[in-house]
Amino acid sequence: MALVLLCGLILQQSWGIKWFSKTQGFLTYLPNVGGRKPGAPVGLAGIEIGKVRSVTIVPPEVFSGNGPIFGQMDRVKKEMEGVRPDQPNSKAKLSDLDDRLRALRLELRLVEVTMEVRSQYVNRISTDSEVTIESKGLIGDSFIEISAGTAGVPPPRRGEYLIIEGVRTTSFREIITGANDVIANFGVLSEQFKNISMKINPEKVGSNLSDTVQDMQKTLQQANTTFGEATLLVRDLRQGEGTVGRMVTDPALYDRLNESLQKFSSLADRIQEGTGTLGKLVNNPELHDRASAMIAKTDAVVERVNKGEGTFGKLSTDPALYDSARRAVERFTAFVDGIDRGEGTMGKLLKDPSLYNNLNQSTAEITKLIYDLRQDPRKYLTIRFRLF
User: Residue 360 sits in which domain range?
Assistant: First the structure.
């Protein structure tokens, strides 16, 4: 009996077995457990609520969440195969794709962790709970932490176990690796600063130091002047002085703008309701039907004209009409050229100067006759009677 009790105490202390308390089994999948072994504590909000029962490496196909990761890995591999060596920056592209592929491999959940949680804490775990590997301090021991759920819905069940989603966390090794990279970059920067300092000539620096100080003083004075003007501008804006100040502080401008927006909104509502001329043009289907019918008739007329049907069709497609018009234009051109040369009656009427002179002389004689008639009308209007 003493040996049995001793074994029970050893199991209770090392494995955390509670002989007289009910537990619920939980199952999760993680990419890395950080060296956790069976018997490691399981916490919830910093309180130990159970123990790890088993840690097993399983095939990737066991966890269904690895499927999308494999799909992304296949796409990255195809992109790597499509990069040709003669392309610009091909090495950089292959290096980036290789880093992406390595990061996706680290996302694969290959470790199956079985946990037992005391029954009084099961109702605090729901579908939105997550399992992470936490550590006590920066370099302290790590433990499995379950986040408290807020959904109020129990996790999905597989047999006697409830499945919780596992989240990959950055390990201390990755932090140290990143720190090493940062330190290496600082080493490269320090070497570059050293090379730059060796190239600087102290004599030239000393000779140009006074000029540099003067330039800095001038720059500061200009900056002070600029800040002063900016302060005055802001003060004028607050006091409502100037055009911009009135636009900023005048409430009438805001009221007018608000009134204009209200009128525009009312106009848009009337247009949408089909009120007014513009509203009917926008919303009346009859106008659309008439326009469609008119376009259809126009298309029919154009088609008949192209076929040579009707008066317009014959006018546009009959070559005889074109020849007749061309001959008529040629005759008219020849007729105008003959008149311009002074040929024929019309040409002589336009080009003969004697016609102008005779017409001018006749006009002068008629003017004199009218003048004499007004001066002495009896001379021309006397009537004489003779009796035989």
Answer: 320-378
